[in-house]
Amino acid sequence: MPSTEHSNSTGSLLTKNILYISYDGMTDQLGQSQVLPYLVGLQKFGYNFHLISCEKPEKFEKQRKTIEDICKGNGITWHPLPYTKSPPVLSTVKDVRQITKKAFDLHRIHKFDMVHCRGYISALVGYKMKKQLRSALLFDMRGLWADEKVDAGSWNLRNPIYKTVYNFFKKKEKQFLENADYTISLTRAAQKEIHSWRHISNNPVKMEVIPCCTDTELFNPAQVDAQIRASIQKELGISDRDTILTYLGSIGSWYMLDEMLDFFVTYQHKYPTAKFLFITGDQHEQIRTRAAERNIGADKILIRPALRKEVPASISLGAHSVFFIRATYSKISSSPTKQAELMSMGIPVISNAGVGDTDLIIKNFKSGVVIGDFTAESYNRSIDELAVTTFDRQAIRHGAEQYFSLTDGVSKYLRVYQSILGHD
Fold it and tell me: pLDDT digits over 304-314, tens only?
């Protein structure tokens, strides 16, 4: 996969060369929402970015031009590498080797002042560069990755191979935290947990909390395209009499589809005209099958994928939105992007406790209802609370602007960069 070389256009403003490494691809939705916007913002402060990412071939072909244009327009030099999917473990080893070679080759030319590593795989390379080349290291850990793999069932610790891999990354996690010049956590809950670890030397480590931020201008109810909204409403057969409960995002191992459908059964008792709109491209048949098992009418389940530009209009159809996430140990480090997007649109949410800072944010900004467990009693109690609460949607949006704004996220990264590299 060829490098996509673009020179930074800020000329004499360039003061520091930064290598940003992401194992996630820029042609993935995650790269476009949770990597590039930060780099675009930081580049304006005089940082010269080289970006290494691993791209899935099918997405690379479709989205390459889009990412090239973003990078070219913002002076970011992009070095896409191919992502290797199989076999498990060995494919990742291969990817780490190709990232390492590319990173060291680039360093010989550009003499990077700092390596910003997104996630554990990338940090394997950044840690090596810090030890051998004395580059500063920013460990953007995102979450408790090794524990997430176990909690998700991807790594069965009864399998000696995965047990070895898990132990390897827990050892590396310790090294990253001890040697990074700064660490980024998505949540205060994870920061508190890590600062309690006695096996980490010189704890508390330097750490900044930056949640998954969102573009509050894109997710702005005042900017929703009325034509797109009306088109979606017509396509789905939604009338003005309907009360819409939404779910936004992927359907996977973390998200509790059965419990959310059970909640909707109870929700219908309070709101007889309710329909459940899933804004997702995932597992449509599974959603319908599970709904039918609960005798939810087929006309009550609406499913529609949405392009990014369509998501705000889709969200705006909802009276409330629900997301239940498995509250495992590793999820204390989770920052659901959907929460930021829904709050930015002023939509009250129903969620469960024990996932990152989610419940704390809901309570602090009066942006919804938190359930303690997945019982009919809890569902009824939360729905009664929804019915009697007058949510201030503008205040909910203001909370998103305070806590999740992209501008604030860039400002926090800038302070970390300046702490590591100094002010110019």
Answer: 999 888 999 99
